[in-house]
Design brief:
Helix content is 46%, strand content 24%. Helix 3 links the parallel strand 3 and strand 4. It is globular and about 30 Å long.
Length: 103
């Protein structure tokens, strides 16, 4: 899934809803692409951590794409980048979590 714009209190519920809907399909792997995000608030970090927990419970591999400093910085500053699988491109994320699948 691709996320764009600002991830803050006004968009957090929409993000969680989209993540829940995607995970309800019980995919083998899921990529959350944040490369179009211009701002990532703490509630967005929490949503990503909750997505990881939910994915883990249903055995879905999850990866985050973050390549803009406005998103990478909050991930690094909070240590969330150490808890999530973060990649600089969608291709790298897919190659790691879904070997042989290029979609």
């Amino acid at each position: 899934m691709t996320v764009s714009g600002e991830v803050d209190l006004t968009s957090e519920l929409e993000l969680r809803s989209q993540i829940d809907a995607a995970l309800a399909e019980r995919p083998i792997a899921m990529v959350i692409d944040l490369s179009l995000v211009s701002f990532l608030a703490s509630c967005g970090l929490t949503a990503l951590l909750q997505a990881k927990q939910q994915a883990h419970e249903q055995e879905t591999r999850i990866a985050i794409v973050a390549n803009d400093r406005r998103v990478v910085r909050p991930l690094e500053a909070t240590g969330v980048d150490q808890l999530l699988s973060v990649y600089s491109s969608r291709a790298d994320a897919l190659r790691d979590i879904a070997p042989g699948d290029t979609n």
